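Batch job 17 of 40 flagged for manual review because the log was empty.
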Amino acid sequence: MLVGSLPFETVEEGLRAVGSKLGDDVIAIPDGEVGPRKMWCMFLATDTYSKHHDLVESRRPSPAVISNEEKPFGDKKTRPGAAPEYHWTFRVKDGVKRLDFGGLGYAAAARASYATFCRLRDEGVIAKGPRFQVSLVATDSGTNVYFDDVTTWPMVHAAYAKAMKAEISKMLEVIPADDLAIQLDLAWEVVDLSIGDEQYFPWWPQSTLDEKFERYMTDLVDLASGIPEAVPLGLHWCYGTWGGWPMTEMPSLDLCVRLSNVAVERIKRRVDFVHMPVVERPDDAFLAPLRDLDIGSTRVYLGLIHPQDGPEGANRRIDLAKKYLKDFGISAVCGFGRENPRELGDILDLHKTAARRL
């Protein structure tokens, strides 16, 4: 599986690259999250929050950050809380009792990209089997980092979930359910949970790990309810790439396994797959939590692809994972949006080579 982002300027470049390399070996093909979506949830700040009549800026980053021209923190895994110049935060105006975000832009992008997907499939560039993949930012990832008045979070979360569910409905007006796959990306949730009882950003509430877990799971269950059963649903447990992957320590797959077990149990509809990243040099202790997975027929994709160590490294990780999980698919740890586009072909070839080991 492919997590989402691709290092191209246009949708067609990304679809052609994946279609020509992976054929029907990939479950779904994303549009690459190009243009204003290149920096993932920054799209929400630039295109929705900064222009909304019921919101005001409370902190503004440098123009280079807003225009996506500057990479935060270089290659350091520096906690963003120590670098306020990279925060862009907003507050709900005084007196606003009900917030409505309106369109978030995801449906418009998906509908336009799907037209390109269909044309390339008709031309034989894309195989008949893979679905069109849309990756969406989950509720807390799309809001908590941008709203520094936590007293308004319930209002903001409700408005975001309502807007995102409407985006999904708009997609389905054009994209048939049997040709679509939706992946929900949970990055800030996972990064925050990975530090236990600590606060990631200074304005986030002081909460225990269990309190955070319940908050994030409640919002995830609610958002997933807006995805029809006919559309495959995947969950990407993301450790982030902002300043280098992973953004926090990842001692084992224990958190990913716990998230998967609870999500599959609580989400009312079928969860088709979960994605868990794997560090470059895992040991038995890292992968052993896979024995505790209890997710029925939900497919597991392990992020085993690390381009820097090629087929040998991928095969080593696959063989180790087989000790703890009988059946799984493979992917990279995250999207490829920050990779060199000239190297993507080799990375996709590595996916196919490694898949033969399964």
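Reviewer: the log was empty due to a logging misconfiguration, but the result itself is present. Residues 73-78 have pLDDT under 50 and may be disordered. Unflagging and moving on to job 18.
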